[in-house]
Amino acid sequence: MQLFYKFFFMLQSRKNWKWMQMFIVSEVQHVMRVDSLESSHPIYQEVFNPDQIVEMFDDISYGKGSAIIWMMNNFLTEATFKKGLISYLKDKSFSNAETEDLWRYLDLAAHDDKSLPDDLSVSQIMNAWTRRTGFPVVTLTRDPKHNTATLTQVISGATDYY
């Protein structure tokens, strides 16, 4: 979240600068390359002993984490995302929290603001991004001769080079 807000606050202070485009180029594109490697890992990982905690803070946790925060800020709308995040921080500021807690507060804000259908939850959307490696690659192929288009979606390929 820290990387996302670094760019977000710069955007607020200099509206004519292209901070979010810089975020996409410097953070999102880099982490997409890293996340497509066989050596990648999901953002969400269970911790079985305290020594594992330090190992979890890497390009995936920071870079992909900030990229999905940016994505949620966009699909929920900035106002709804902020509303859910503020409620989450107020209620959890002096206690432990889990990933599902954040999703629940964002759900409440999104359903209240009607930015998500009632039968869809933030956890349904975000668990696909946080509990798996890779990212969806969407390809649209147009056939102007037959006036058709084909849309395909696959998870990014796993390679150990880029």
UniProtKB/TrEMBL annotation:
Q: Which residues form the signal peptide?
A: none
- Span of domain Peptidase M1 membrane alanine aminopeptidase: 4-129
Entry-linked InterPro entries:
Peptidase_M1_aminopeptidases, Peptidase_M1_dom, Peptidase_M4/M1_CTD_sf
Cellular component terms, GO, for this chain's entry? Answer: cytoplasm; extracellular space; membrane
Q: Which GO terms describe its biological process?
A: peptide catabolic process; proteolysis
Q: Which GO terms describe its molecular function?
A: metalloaminopeptidase activity; peptide binding; zinc ion binding
What PANTHER family is this protein classified in? PROTEASE M1 ZINC METALLOPROTEASE, THYROTROPIN-RELEASING HORMONE-DEGRADING ECTOENZYME
Give the protein name, as stated in the record.
Answer: Peptidase M1 membrane alanine aminopeptidase domain-containing protein
The organism is Notodromas monacha
